[in-house]
Amino acid sequence: MNPKKIVVAYSGGLDTSVMVKWLSEKYDAEIIAVTGDLGQEIDSAALEDKALGTGASKAYVVDLSEEFVSDYCWKALKAGAVYEGQYPLATAIGRPLLAKLMVDIAHKENADAVVHGCTGKGNDQVRFEVGIKTLDPELQIIAPLRDWEFKCREDEIDYAIEKNIPIPITKEKPYSIDDNLWGVATECGELEDTTNSPPEDAFQITVNPKAASGEPEQIKIIFEKGVPVAIDDVELSAAQIVKTLNEIGGRNGIGRLDIVENRVVGIKSREVYEAPGAMILHAAHLELEKLTLDKDSFRYKQNVANAYANLIYDGLWFSPLFEALTAFVDKTQETVNGEVILELYKGNLTVLSRSSANSLYSKELATYSADDEFDHKSAEGFIHLYGLPFETMTKIKNSIGVTQ
Questions:
Q1: Segments forming the whole domain that contains residue 18
Q2: Number of domains in the chain
Q3: Is 95 marked active-site?
Q4: Per-residue pLDDT of the chain (404 residues; tens, 9 = 90+)
Q5: Catalytic annotation on 375?
Q6: Are 163 and 182 members of one domain?
Q7: Is 176 among the residues known to form the active site?
């Protein structure tokens, strides 16, 4: 099927910069470049000019930063979604929103195809295509990086030079960088060798913890129903909260991650991430949950958090299970209100204080002082009943000569 109008997910990076020109030469179709601004502070005018100058007939640059944080990042935060125990899922959280944007623009422009710049072994191809197919199964999806003649990034760079396409990388520094308000992901180049320590130029928004200030910095974050609403008693919008924490965390060396992770397609990859704001918020949110959730809900939610993170990472944001788990998470967050004070110092994040009107902590029950109101005598009966099944099991095994 030869499309007549194509909507392209356009970032202005190496792949998409080359892709628009390549598409204009391959297809007799109108090409519309679409960029979702998720807070990466892009130069909209320059990006539009670049897209138009390389073959696009129209270019959209849409500010989605507030929607991204309030409708996407906050869901992940409330769920405690951290992939494989470390990654706050910045890129993965952004993809469903960008997929939705592409479908929306395709409908607006009556386009019959959408194009993404994802590789054939990456995660994002899955996230984009599953999202697009879920939102509109009739749209044709084109993935040039799975089909075109370029065998490596160096070939793309040569093509860009030949076609006079401005690109943000060189052969000497061939990093692939994806960034939004929730974090920055960097791969390729020296990072492909897991024995190499990340070079300093692989980091974009954080200072080296060794070079951070010698004075610790304290911040207070206020939450309502699991969502941060203010920093140091100053109410801010969702995007401003994350931006502010990125700045504070970044200058204190918070948020650097060097991870080998399991990709959706089954291979392992090495990524360097920076997510100062996300890591600060996850630490504060978790501490508040410990204070306000009952034991059974807190423990069960840990399992949900892992499942939720896997769904996000695997590109299943629009799935029925994700929707159902979101309802569970929202219910648990009704009492997650209060404030947390943290200290940031040379890459270290320490919780100093936590308080909530919904706190389930009772000092009178927890204390070992003379104010102790706990009934210690009741523990004997509790322990007897709690251990009774195991005591009984051992007695039966002994009676029939079964060794443990």
A1: 5-174
A2: 3
A3: yes
A4: 789 999 999 988 888 889 999 999 999 999 999 999 999 888 899 899 999 988 899 999 999 999 999 999 999 999 999 999 999 999 999 999 999 999 999 999 999 999 999 988 899 999 999 999 999 999 999 999 998 999 888 899 899 989 888 887 666 667 788 999 999 999 888 899 999 999 999 999 999 999 999 999 999 999 999 999 999 999 999 999 999 999 999 999 999 999 999 999 999 999 999 999 999 999 999 999 999 999 999 999 999 999 999 999 999 999 999 999 999 999 999 999 999 999 999 999 999 999 999 999 999 999 999 999 999 999 999 999 999 999 999 999 999 988 76
A5: no
A6: no
A7: yes
Q: How many helices (H) and strands (E) does the chain have?
A: 13, 14
- Is 102 in the same domain as 218? no
Question: The tokens 């792949």 sit on which residue?
Answer: 15
165 shares a domain with 23: yes
Residue 122 shares a structural domain with residue 194: no
From the list 176, 178, 354, 356, the catalytic residue is: 176
Active site residue 297: no
- Cα-only R_g, the chain: 25
Q: How many CA atoms lie within 13 A of 48 on its CB side?
A: 9
Alpha helices in 204-351 (DSSP H): 238-251, 276-292, 295-313, 320-332
Tell me if 218 sits within 8 A of 353, measured CB to CB. no
pTM to 2 decimal places: 0.94
The catalytic residue among 17, 65, 95, 179 is: 95
Is the same domain home to 116 and 250?
no
Instruction: Give the domain CATH number at 15.
Output: 3.40.50.620
Last residue of a domain, one of 134, 151, 174: 174
Helix orientation angle between 90-109 and 124-135, rounded to the nearest 10 degrees: 40
